Amino acid sequence: MFSFLGIYVLERDTAVYSGSVIDVFARLGVSEEAVRSTLTRMVKRNLLARHRQGKKVYFGLTPHATEVLDDGRRHVWETGAINRDWDGTWTLVGFSLPGSERSTRHDLRSQLIWSGFGLLQGGLWIAPGTKDVESVLAALGLGDNVTVLQARAFRPTESADLVRKAFDTDQIAERYRAFLDRWDTAHPLPSAADDLARQLLLHTDWLQLVRQDPRLPAEHLPADWPAIRAETLFHTLARRYEPTAAKLAAAVLDELPLRP
Questions:
Q1: Whether the predicted model's global pTM rises above the 0.70 cut
Q2: Rounded Cα gap, residues 69 and 5, in angstroms
Q3: 2-65+253-257 to CATH, choices 2.40.50.100, 1.10.490.10, 2.40.50.90, 1.10.10.10
Q4: Which tens digit of pLDDT belongs to each residue from 186-240?
Q5: Boundaries of each Transcriptional repressor PaaX-like C-terminal domain copy (predicted)?
């Protein structure tokens, strides 16, 4: 759903009719009930807003959803999967929250992982480069329980050791290899309904990859790091599917223009 909204609703100042969203997701084998349930949950979570025209219900993005989708777009199209410009610095986050704050602790950990942090040791998370931790803390209402620092590795500590200790590079590489196994063929996903379905599945697979990738310094990764080939493949296929998918979406989607 985030892939769909990011491609066909973000920056378009429009809302889409629920029935046409159902038609799009039918191409992916998703049931009407599942789509309606997802739309309802997203309204409750302040990600979508309902707009009525006659008997039809349209769904548009909230400011919160726009923020989330913009962040995803930057991860996919601007940040990229390969960190070739690392300046040698690390952002460190340490926190200690009481047991009663289990939910908040879980949310903070999730946000740190999304921001590229890995757990170095008990309560201490690190990420390469400068990270905007302040916005993460503000969204969760944290401050006093968290310490944020920027540092460089000094001997006997080596940055390569930090990468090895805080991040499971084998698991990261395996996820990229799984992406390549699925998409690096002459005719990817032949069972998919059409290029609109392939486009949404491709973007979803790639977004899940980059969301879990801390973008570790290229100098501390193998020369054959699979993210390099996977990123090239994603861009190639995204360009291939876009024209046909856009035509199919235009024919299916019932849109309601939104004005300030």
A1: yes
A2: 8
A3: 1.10.10.10
A4: 999 999 999 999 999 999 999 889 888 888 999 999 889 999 999 999 999 999 9
A5: 167-249
